[in-house]
Amino acid sequence: MEKYHIKPNAKVRLSDYDPNALGDFEGEKRECKKKFKQLCVQLGSLQKKLYAEHKHKILIVFQALDTGGKDGTIRAVFKKVNPQGVKVANFKVPTPIELDHDYLWRVHTKVPGKGEMVIFNRSHYEDVLVVRVHKLVPHEVWSKRYRHINEFEQILTEEGTTILKFFLHIDLEEQKKRFLERLEDPQKNWKFNPKDIEERKLWGKYKEAYEEMLCRTSTDWAPWFVVPANRNWIRNLIVASIIVNTLNKLDMHFPNLIENPEPYKAALESD
Ligand code: AMP
Ligand code: MG
Protein backbone atom coordinates (compact mmCIF):
# COMPACT_ATOMS: atom_id res chain seq x y z
CA MET A 1 0.00 0.00 0.00
CA GLU A 2 2.77 2.41 0.98
CA LYS A 3 4.22 2.38 -2.51
CA TYR A 4 1.10 4.06 -3.90
CA HIS A 5 0.31 6.25 -0.92
CA ILE A 6 1.02 10.00 -1.14
CA LYS A 7 2.42 11.30 2.14
CA PRO A 8 0.83 14.52 3.40
CA ASN A 9 2.47 17.59 1.84
CA ALA A 10 4.85 15.45 -0.24
CA LYS A 11 5.82 17.16 -3.45
CA VAL A 12 4.38 15.05 -6.27
CA ARG A 13 5.77 14.76 -9.77
CA LEU A 14 3.60 12.42 -11.78
CA SER A 15 6.52 11.66 -14.09
CA ASP A 16 8.04 9.79 -11.10
CA TYR A 17 5.11 7.37 -11.20
CA ASP A 18 5.18 4.78 -13.97
CA PRO A 19 1.65 4.04 -15.24
CA ASN A 20 2.94 0.62 -16.36
CA ALA A 21 4.46 -0.30 -12.98
CA LEU A 22 3.82 -3.79 -11.69
CA GLY A 23 4.92 -2.95 -8.16
CA ASP A 24 4.57 -5.75 -5.65
CA PHE A 25 2.56 -7.79 -8.10
CA GLU A 26 5.35 -9.12 -10.26
CA GLY A 27 3.51 -12.40 -10.67
CA GLU A 28 1.92 -13.59 -13.85
CA LYS A 29 -1.22 -11.93 -15.12
CA ARG A 30 -3.15 -15.14 -14.43
CA GLU A 31 -1.91 -15.24 -10.86
CA CYS A 32 -2.87 -11.59 -10.37
CA LYS A 33 -6.35 -12.17 -11.75
CA LYS A 34 -6.80 -15.09 -9.36
CA LYS A 35 -5.72 -12.95 -6.42
CA PHE A 36 -8.06 -10.20 -7.58
CA LYS A 37 -11.02 -12.60 -7.67
CA GLN A 38 -10.32 -13.62 -4.07
CA LEU A 39 -10.13 -9.98 -3.02
CA CYS A 40 -13.51 -9.26 -4.64
CA VAL A 41 -15.06 -12.07 -2.61
CA GLN A 42 -13.42 -10.72 0.56
CA LEU A 43 -14.73 -7.25 -0.22
CA GLY A 44 -18.21 -8.75 -0.58
CA SER A 45 -17.98 -10.34 2.89
CA LEU A 46 -16.61 -7.16 4.45
CA GLN A 47 -19.42 -5.09 2.95
CA LYS A 48 -21.96 -7.55 4.35
CA LYS A 49 -20.54 -6.88 7.83
CA LEU A 50 -20.35 -3.13 7.22
CA TYR A 51 -24.05 -3.09 6.35
CA ALA A 52 -25.10 -5.35 9.22
CA GLU A 53 -23.03 -3.58 11.86
CA HIS A 54 -24.41 -0.17 10.83
CA LYS A 55 -21.52 1.69 12.40
CA HIS A 56 -18.87 2.72 9.88
CA LYS A 57 -19.27 4.86 6.77
CA ILE A 58 -17.02 4.28 3.76
CA LEU A 59 -16.26 6.83 1.05
CA ILE A 60 -14.15 5.85 -1.95
CA VAL A 61 -13.18 8.57 -4.42
CA PHE A 62 -12.01 7.93 -7.99
CA GLN A 63 -10.37 10.64 -10.06
CA ALA A 64 -8.65 10.24 -13.41
CA LEU A 65 -8.23 11.87 -16.76
CA ASP A 66 -10.63 10.83 -19.52
CA THR A 67 -10.35 7.08 -20.24
CA GLY A 68 -8.40 6.64 -16.98
CA GLY A 69 -10.61 3.69 -16.06
CA LYS A 70 -12.95 4.99 -13.36
CA ASP A 71 -16.01 3.19 -14.74
CA GLY A 72 -14.10 -0.04 -15.40
CA THR A 73 -12.54 -0.09 -11.93
CA ILE A 74 -15.91 0.44 -10.25
CA ARG A 75 -17.49 -2.31 -12.36
CA ALA A 76 -14.70 -4.79 -11.63
CA VAL A 77 -13.82 -4.14 -7.99
CA PHE A 78 -17.35 -3.96 -6.64
CA LYS A 79 -18.87 -6.86 -8.55
CA LYS A 80 -19.38 -8.98 -5.43
CA VAL A 81 -20.93 -6.38 -3.15
CA ASN A 82 -24.60 -6.22 -2.32
CA PRO A 83 -26.10 -3.27 -4.21
CA GLN A 84 -28.21 -2.66 -1.14
CA GLY A 85 -25.79 -0.66 0.95
CA VAL A 86 -23.54 0.52 -1.87
CA LYS A 87 -24.12 3.62 -3.98
CA VAL A 88 -22.23 5.23 -6.83
CA ALA A 89 -22.38 9.01 -7.15
CA ASN A 90 -21.34 10.58 -10.47
CA PHE A 91 -20.38 14.21 -10.60
CA LYS A 92 -20.96 15.82 -13.98
CA VAL A 93 -20.94 19.46 -15.10
CA PRO A 94 -22.89 21.21 -12.31
CA THR A 95 -26.51 22.15 -13.00
CA PRO A 96 -27.60 25.82 -12.69
CA ILE A 97 -29.03 25.08 -9.22
CA GLU A 98 -25.79 23.40 -8.14
CA LEU A 99 -23.85 26.40 -9.44
CA ASP A 100 -26.00 28.68 -7.30
CA HIS A 101 -24.63 26.91 -4.22
CA ASP A 102 -21.15 26.37 -2.87
CA TYR A 103 -19.30 23.53 -4.68
CA LEU A 104 -19.49 21.16 -1.69
CA TRP A 105 -23.28 21.41 -1.45
CA ARG A 106 -24.01 18.71 -4.03
CA VAL A 107 -21.23 16.55 -2.63
CA HIS A 108 -22.32 16.58 1.00
CA THR A 109 -25.75 15.18 0.10
CA LYS A 110 -24.10 12.08 -1.39
CA VAL A 111 -21.73 11.06 1.42
CA PRO A 112 -22.33 7.68 3.09
CA GLY A 113 -24.50 7.12 6.11
CA LYS A 114 -23.83 4.40 8.72
CA GLY A 115 -23.31 0.98 7.17
CA GLU A 116 -23.02 2.43 3.68
CA MET A 117 -20.28 2.42 1.11
CA VAL A 118 -20.38 5.28 -1.39
CA ILE A 119 -18.21 5.41 -4.48
CA PHE A 120 -17.52 8.80 -6.05
CA ASN A 121 -17.00 8.68 -9.81
CA ARG A 122 -15.38 12.14 -10.04
CA SER A 123 -15.92 14.31 -7.02
CA HIS A 124 -15.41 17.67 -5.32
CA TYR A 125 -11.85 17.44 -6.68
CA GLU A 126 -13.18 18.53 -10.10
CA ASP A 127 -13.47 21.93 -8.42
CA VAL A 128 -9.66 22.20 -8.22
CA LEU A 129 -9.08 20.36 -11.54
CA VAL A 130 -11.36 21.13 -14.50
CA VAL A 131 -12.41 24.37 -12.80
CA ARG A 132 -8.77 25.44 -12.43
CA VAL A 133 -7.65 24.31 -15.89
CA HIS A 134 -10.57 26.06 -17.63
CA LYS A 135 -10.42 29.09 -15.34
CA LEU A 136 -14.11 28.69 -14.50
CA VAL A 137 -13.48 30.68 -11.32
CA PRO A 138 -10.54 32.99 -10.48
CA HIS A 139 -7.35 31.73 -8.82
CA GLU A 140 -8.26 33.34 -5.50
CA VAL A 141 -11.45 31.27 -5.43
CA TRP A 142 -10.14 27.80 -6.34
CA SER A 143 -6.89 28.14 -4.38
CA LYS A 144 -8.81 28.28 -1.08
CA ARG A 145 -10.54 25.02 -1.88
CA TYR A 146 -7.66 22.74 -0.83
CA ARG A 147 -8.18 23.98 2.72
CA HIS A 148 -11.97 23.69 2.48
CA ILE A 149 -11.72 20.16 1.15
CA ASN A 150 -9.29 19.03 3.86
CA GLU A 151 -11.55 20.46 6.53
CA PHE A 152 -14.68 19.00 4.93
CA GLU A 153 -13.06 15.57 4.79
CA GLN A 154 -11.89 15.99 8.38
CA ILE A 155 -15.47 16.60 9.49
CA LEU A 156 -16.56 13.45 7.69
CA THR A 157 -13.83 11.30 9.23
CA GLU A 158 -14.35 12.69 12.73
CA GLU A 159 -17.99 11.73 12.32
CA GLY A 160 -17.12 8.11 11.50
CA THR A 161 -16.30 8.04 7.78
CA THR A 162 -13.31 6.20 6.37
CA ILE A 163 -12.08 7.88 3.19
CA LEU A 164 -9.88 6.43 0.46
CA LYS A 165 -8.99 8.39 -2.66
CA PHE A 166 -7.59 6.88 -5.84
CA PHE A 167 -5.99 8.66 -8.76
CA LEU A 168 -5.90 6.26 -11.70
CA HIS A 169 -2.73 7.16 -13.53
CA ILE A 170 -2.48 6.52 -17.29
CA ASP A 171 -0.25 8.13 -19.89
CA LEU A 172 -1.07 9.95 -23.10
CA GLU A 173 -0.18 6.94 -25.26
CA GLU A 174 -2.66 4.76 -23.38
CA GLN A 175 -5.31 7.48 -23.59
CA LYS A 176 -4.91 7.64 -27.36
CA LYS A 177 -5.33 3.86 -27.59
CA ARG A 178 -8.48 3.98 -25.45
CA PHE A 179 -10.02 6.88 -27.41
CA LEU A 180 -9.39 4.98 -30.66
CA GLU A 181 -11.09 1.94 -29.15
CA ARG A 182 -14.08 4.10 -28.24
CA LEU A 183 -14.26 5.35 -31.82
CA GLU A 184 -13.94 1.90 -33.34
CA ASP A 185 -16.00 -0.27 -30.99
CA PRO A 186 -19.78 0.30 -31.38
CA GLN A 187 -20.24 -0.74 -27.75
CA LYS A 188 -17.83 1.95 -26.57
CA ASN A 189 -18.79 4.69 -29.00
CA TRP A 190 -21.23 6.35 -26.61
CA LYS A 191 -18.37 7.17 -24.28
CA PHE A 192 -16.62 9.38 -26.80
CA ASN A 193 -17.25 13.09 -26.64
CA PRO A 194 -15.77 15.32 -29.39
CA LYS A 195 -14.71 17.70 -26.61
CA ASP A 196 -12.36 14.96 -25.33
CA ILE A 197 -9.89 15.90 -28.08
CA GLU A 198 -9.66 19.46 -26.76
CA GLU A 199 -9.28 18.22 -23.18
CA ARG A 200 -6.46 15.93 -24.23
CA LYS A 201 -4.48 18.96 -25.43
CA LEU A 202 -4.63 20.31 -21.86
CA TRP A 203 -2.90 17.25 -20.35
CA GLY A 204 0.06 19.40 -19.19
CA LYS A 205 -2.25 21.76 -17.33
CA TYR A 206 -4.21 18.87 -15.82
CA LYS A 207 -0.94 17.26 -14.72
CA GLU A 208 -0.02 20.41 -12.80
CA ALA A 209 -3.47 20.59 -11.24
CA TYR A 210 -3.36 16.91 -10.23
CA GLU A 211 0.12 17.26 -8.76
CA GLU A 212 -0.90 20.17 -6.56
CA MET A 213 -4.13 18.44 -5.56
CA LEU A 214 -2.26 15.27 -4.54
CA CYS A 215 0.31 17.24 -2.54
CA ARG A 216 -2.18 19.48 -0.74
CA THR A 217 -5.06 17.12 -0.06
CA SER A 218 -3.46 13.82 0.86
CA THR A 219 -4.00 13.95 4.61
CA ASP A 220 -3.66 11.56 7.53
CA TRP A 221 -7.44 11.27 7.58
CA ALA A 222 -8.11 11.05 3.81
CA PRO A 223 -5.13 9.64 1.90
CA TRP A 224 -4.57 9.69 -1.86
CA PHE A 225 -3.18 6.69 -3.72
CA VAL A 226 -1.64 7.00 -7.18
CA VAL A 227 -2.46 3.77 -9.00
CA PRO A 228 -0.57 2.71 -12.14
CA ALA A 229 -3.53 2.26 -14.46
CA ASN A 230 -2.29 1.50 -17.97
CA ARG A 231 -3.04 -2.17 -17.32
CA ASN A 232 -6.54 -2.88 -16.05
CA TRP A 233 -5.70 -6.06 -14.19
CA ILE A 234 -2.92 -4.54 -12.12
CA ARG A 235 -4.99 -1.40 -11.47
CA ASN A 236 -7.94 -3.48 -10.23
CA LEU A 237 -5.70 -5.60 -8.04
CA ILE A 238 -4.07 -2.58 -6.36
CA VAL A 239 -7.37 -0.79 -5.73
CA ALA A 240 -9.03 -3.91 -4.34
CA SER A 241 -6.02 -4.68 -2.11
CA ILE A 242 -6.04 -1.20 -0.59
CA ILE A 243 -9.78 -1.26 0.06
CA VAL A 244 -9.78 -4.76 1.59
CA ASN A 245 -6.75 -3.93 3.72
CA THR A 246 -8.41 -0.78 5.04
CA LEU A 247 -11.74 -2.46 5.75
CA ASN A 248 -10.02 -5.33 7.54
CA LYS A 249 -8.48 -2.83 9.95
CA LEU A 250 -11.93 -1.61 10.99
CA ASP A 251 -12.44 -4.91 12.80
CA MET A 252 -16.14 -5.12 11.97
CA HIS A 253 -18.48 -7.68 13.49
CA PHE A 254 -21.97 -8.94 12.84
CA PRO A 255 -24.04 -7.54 15.70
CA ASN A 256 -25.65 -9.97 18.08
CA LEU A 257 -28.71 -8.08 19.20
CA ILE A 258 -30.73 -11.00 20.54
CA GLU A 259 -28.97 -12.13 23.70
CA ASN A 260 -31.44 -14.85 24.52
CA PRO A 261 -33.25 -16.33 21.50
CA GLU A 262 -35.01 -19.03 23.54
CA PRO A 263 -38.32 -17.22 24.30
CA TYR A 264 -38.68 -16.29 20.63
CA LYS A 265 -37.91 -19.81 19.51
CA ALA A 266 -40.47 -21.13 21.98
CA ALA A 267 -43.06 -18.67 20.69
CA LEU A 268 -42.44 -19.81 17.12
CA GLU A 269 -42.56 -23.50 18.07
CA SER A 270 -45.91 -23.09 19.77
CA ASP A 271 -47.80 -21.22 17.04
P1 AMP B 1 -17.88 12.07 -17.84
O1 AMP B 1 -17.28 11.65 -16.53
O2 AMP B 1 -17.07 11.65 -19.02
O3 AMP B 1 -19.31 11.69 -17.97
O4 AMP B 1 -17.84 13.67 -17.92
C1 AMP B 1 -18.28 14.47 -16.90
C2 AMP B 1 -17.75 15.87 -17.17
O5 AMP B 1 -18.20 16.72 -16.13
C3 AMP B 1 -16.24 15.92 -17.15
O6 AMP B 1 -15.80 16.61 -18.29
C4 AMP B 1 -15.93 16.70 -15.90
O7 AMP B 1 -14.76 17.45 -15.96
C5 AMP B 1 -17.17 17.58 -15.79
N1 AMP B 1 -17.34 18.09 -14.42
C6 AMP B 1 -17.49 17.40 -13.28
N2 AMP B 1 -17.53 18.21 -12.20
C7 AMP B 1 -17.40 19.47 -12.68
C8 AMP B 1 -17.37 20.75 -12.07
N3 AMP B 1 -17.47 20.88 -10.75
N4 AMP B 1 -17.25 21.84 -12.87
C9 AMP B 1 -17.13 21.68 -14.21
N5 AMP B 1 -17.15 20.51 -14.85
C10 AMP B 1 -17.28 19.40 -14.10
MG1 MG C 1 -15.98 11.39 -20.72
Low-confidence runs (pLDDT<50, min 5 residues)? none
Bound molecules: adenosine monophosphate, magnesium ion
Radius of gyration: 20 Å
Structural class: alpha/beta
Q: Reading side by side through the largest sheet, how are the strands ordered?
A: 2-3-1-4-5
Count all strands and give the number.
5
Residue-averaged pLDDT, rounded? Answer: 96
Distance between the termini: 55 Å
* Elements, N to C (H/E): HEHEHHEHHHEHHHEHH
Going by CATH, the architecture would be 3-Layer(aba) Sandwich
Q: List the domain count as a whole number.
A: 1
Helix content: 40-55%
Write down the CATH topology: Rossmann fold
What is the CATH class? Answer: Alpha Beta
The biggest beta sheet is recorded as: 5 strands, parallel
Q: What's the oligomerization state? A: single chain
Structure report:
This protein is α/β, with parallel strands linked by helices and 271 residues long. The chain has one domain (5-269): P-loop containing nucleotide triphosphate hydrolases (Rossmann fold), CATH 3.40.50.300. The protein is 45% helix and 12% strand. It has twelve helices and five strands. It has helices at 29-53, 70-77, 96-99, 105-108, 130-133, 139-142, 145-158, 172-184, 195-200, 203-217, 232-249, 262-269, and strands spanning 57-64, 86-90, 117-121, 161-169, 224-228. The protein has a five-stranded parallel sheet, with helices on both faces. The protein starts with 28 loop residues before the first helix and ends with a helix. It binds adenosine monophosphate and magnesium ion (MG).
